[in-house]
Design brief:
The protein is an alpha/beta fold and about 350 residues long. It has a domain of about 220 residues: Ribokinase (UDP-N-acetylmuramoyl-L-alanine:D-glutamate ligase, 3-Layer(aba) Sandwich), CATH 3.40.1190. It is about 35% helix and about 20% strand. Strands 5-4-1-8-9-10-11-12-13 form a nine-stranded mixed beta sheet, with helices on both faces. A four-stranded mixed beta sheet has the order 3-2-6-7. A hairpin with a 5-residue loop joins strand 6 and strand 7. Helix 6 packs across helix 7, helix 8 packs antiparallel against helix 9 and helix 9 packs across helix 10. The radius of gyration is 20 Å and the shape is globular.
Length: about 350
């Protein structure tokens, strides 16, 4: 058993780069590189946590096929606890074709596969009861679990003193809030992307989004803003934006949101203050987009913290020079006074 449990989707990703246009029907086009990698929100997060140096357990469903065997081998090689994983002989493993453009953005063709059949009854509740942090990762991509199954699991976790977190995916069915609303009152941390949050809340300003989810019972809200960083609204505190490490070169944005969640949960597990968790999460996300694949670029906690320290030093030095000594490094970093 481990203290961090991720419940959600697992996907075999076939990645192709560079794809800036599609060939006509019956024609062939070349790409620079293709690879088979593990993907899916829950799978990405548990491997990211392992690479950061934290153990975790994954709960989900895969098929008894070559893609499923690949996922099992990858999880085992990263020392992820797979005791909660279900193998279903009657379904295929979920898979995606990921086409990465020259700017690092991606277009995806996806098959639900086994994730569509994952449900509440597949979950070993003893694993949940013995954990400290639960993340549901991939909401809106598990039709048999989304809605009532999710609500039942979160309610059970809260009754057993588990810190409950959720990350969403894009809802292609358009149900959005109708599907998720009964679960929100059990969430300690809600971590949607900005676009997903807008669809669910009907709000466009960060403060309005956070207030909307507070009105539904969520205790803490963090909205992922991509290259702008994240907006954080802790319980009973003012909201604020934590800027991204956007001087790094984006090679592939696949898995960036999942790596952010892994970084933030790692900080929560370590007992860090919220602002430090958010900045660390941004840094883990920066490492993700510097490599092809959803988990390839993730480093240890110590390496990520060193990256943050080095990045801040360079940023302060350049800003100080540009401003002709009008401001000192201390003034530039005053927003970090409560960081440690």
């Amino acid at each position: 058993m481990t203290d961090i449990v991720c419940v959600g989707i697992l996907v075999a990703d076939v990645l192709g780069k560079t794809v800036n246009s599609f060939p006509e029907k019956g024609k062939l086009a070349l790409v620079d590189r293709m690879s088979l990698q593990i993907g899916g929100c829950a799978a990405n997060v548990v491997i990211d946590l392992a690479k950061l140096g934290l153990g975790s357990t994954i709960i989900g469903k895969i098929g008894d096929d070559n893609f499923g065997k690949f996922l099992l081998e990858t999880l085992n090689s990263n020392k992820v606890n797979i005791s909660g994983l279900k193998l279903d002989n009657n379904v295929s493993t979920s898979a995606s074709m990921v086409m990465i453009s020259s700017d690092g953005e991606r277009s995806i063709l996806h098959s639900f596969g086994a994730n569509a059949k994952f449900c509440f009854d597949d979950i070993n509740l003893d694993i949940i009861k013995k954990s400290k942090i639960l993340l549901i990762a991939g909401t809106f991509l598990m039709p048999d679990f989304d809605g009532e199954g999710t609500r039942k699991l979160l309610k059970f976790a809260k009754e057993n003193g588990v810190l409950c977190c959720m990350d969403t995916a894009w809802d292609s069915t358009g149900e959005w809030l109708n599907k998720i609303e009964p679960s929100l009152e059990y969430l300690d941390w809600f971590m949607p992307s900005y676009d997903e949050a807008v669809e669910m809340s009907g709000k466009t300003k960060h403060e309005g989004i956070a207030q909307f989810f507070y009105s539904k019972g969520v205790r803490n809200v963090i909205v992922k803003l991509g290259s702008e960083g994240c907006y954080v609204k802790p319980e009973n505190e003012d909201g604020y934006t934590v800027v991204a490490f956007n001087k790094v070169k984006a090679i592939d944005t696949s898995g960036a949101g999942d790596s952010f969640c892994a970084g933030f949960i790692a900080g929560l597990y370590k007992g860090w203050k919220v602002q430090k968790c958010a900045e660390f999460a941004n840094a883990v996300g920066a490492h993700c987009i510097m490599q092809i694949g959803t988990t390839t670029g993730i480093k240890s906690i110590e390496e990520v913290l060193r990256f943050i320290s080095d990045y801040e030093f360079i940023h302060v030095k350049k800003s100080h020079t540009k401003m002709n000594n009008e401001a000192s490094p201390t003034h530039i970093l005053t927003n970090k006074k409560n960081y440690k």
